[in-house]
From TrEMBL:
Its main location: cytoplasm. Its cofactor is a divalent metal cation. This is NAD kinase. It is an enzyme of class 2 (transferase). It catalyses: NAD(+) + ATP = ADP + NADP(+) + H(+). NAD(+) binds at residues 45-46, 121-122, 147, 149, 184. GO terms for molecular function: NAD+ kinase activity. It holds the Pfam family NAD_kinase. Involved in the regulation of the intracellular balance of NAD and NADP, and is a key enzyme in the biosynthesis of NADP. Catalyzes specifically the phosphorylation on 2'-hydroxyl of the adenosine moiety of NAD to yield NADP. InterPro entries: ATP-NAD_kinase_N (IPR017438), ATP-NAD_kinase_PpnK-typ_C (IPR017437), NAD/diacylglycerol_kinase_sf (IPR016064), NADK (IPR002504). Keywords: ATP-binding, Cytoplasm, Kinase, NAD, NADP, Nucleotide-binding, Transferase. It comes from Fructobacillus papyrifericola. It is found in: Cytoplasm.
Length: 265
């Protein structure tokens, strides 16, 4: 097994990375940041998102492990004081993994050319100044005319972020689906939207056709100023992200810990 370490530059993270490197060496585990079989991230969920975009296209069976320098997140299973335990799990590794669906977004230009992106958490279409005016299609069917701040499209694991704030549902990552939620939509006699989240499965798509010469697309942490883009299509990606499942925490446990664990029962 070859392991890559991906981390932020915070002092605590750098200290943990030093401990990790020493423990990996002690256990005889090869470190290879260029062509790893497994990526260990040290930081938070944002750090893991960065690692995802750095490595996701490298190999189909690549796995990730997240070590959090604070509290456990939605993608991180280990804490900073568990370096030895984490490396010990690698020594006994036999390739176990748990897989989560990804979001594919495809932009289509005026000249017909396309470009594809992958998101682990979510993507949005917004108008930086003023409101976004767009037609929303489900497959080839025109579904609604939208006017508002924008739309957010989330994976199941990303459904707890911006999507939840928009009133979207929290989806379990075993569901191969994506979800669109509205960001401050305007409803009147001209523009009428469903007003509820839209959940579509694998094989179906959501297409946003803004009526602007330029607008903003976000893809996880990436921001794209779209110019001469006529449409953005969202669907469940063929690829998945894989996590080493040594002790991968149950999704509903993560949701409870993140939002309601401090409530007395």
């Amino acid at each position: 097994m070859k392991v890559a370490l991906y981390h932020n530059d915070q002092e605590r993270s750098l200290k943990i990375v030093k401990e990790l490197k020493a423990e990996l060496d002690r256990q005889g585990i090869e470190q290879d940041d260029a062509n790893p079989d497994l990526v260990i991230t040290v930081g938070g969920d944002g750090t893991l998102l960065g690692a995802f975009h750095e490595y996701i296209g490298l190999k189909e069976d690549l796995r990730f492990v997240g070590l959090h320098t604070g509290h456990l997140g939605f993608y991180t299973d280990w804490l900073g004081n568990e370096v030895k335990e984490l490396v010990a799990s690698l020594v006994k590794d036999s390739g176990e993994r748990v897989s989560y669906p990804l979001l594919k977004l495809t932009t289509k230009m005026v000249d017909g050319t396309t470009e594809e992106y992958l998101a682990l958490n979510e993507a949005t279409v917004k108008q930086p100044v003023g409101t976004l005016v767009a037609d929303i299609y489900l497959g080839d069917h025109h579904f609604e005319g939208f006017r508002g701040d924008g739309v957010a499209i989330a994976t199941p694991t990303g459904s707890t972020a911006y999507n939840k704030a928009n009133g979207g549902a929290v989806l379990h990552p075993s569901l191969q689906a994506i979800q669109m939620s509205e960001i401050a939509s305007i409803n009147n006699r001209v523009f009428r939207t469903l007003g509820s989240p839209l959940i579509v499965p694998t094989g179906q798509s959501i297409t946003v056709k803004p009526k602007h010469q330029s607008f903003l697309i976000t893809c996880d942490q990436l921001e794209i100023l779209a110019e001469d883009v006529v449409s953005v299509t969202f669907e469940v990606a063929e690829q998945s992200i894989h996590f080493a499942s040594y002790r991968h925490l149950d999704f509903w446990h993560r949701v409870q810990e993140a939002f309601i664990a401090d409530i007395d029962h």
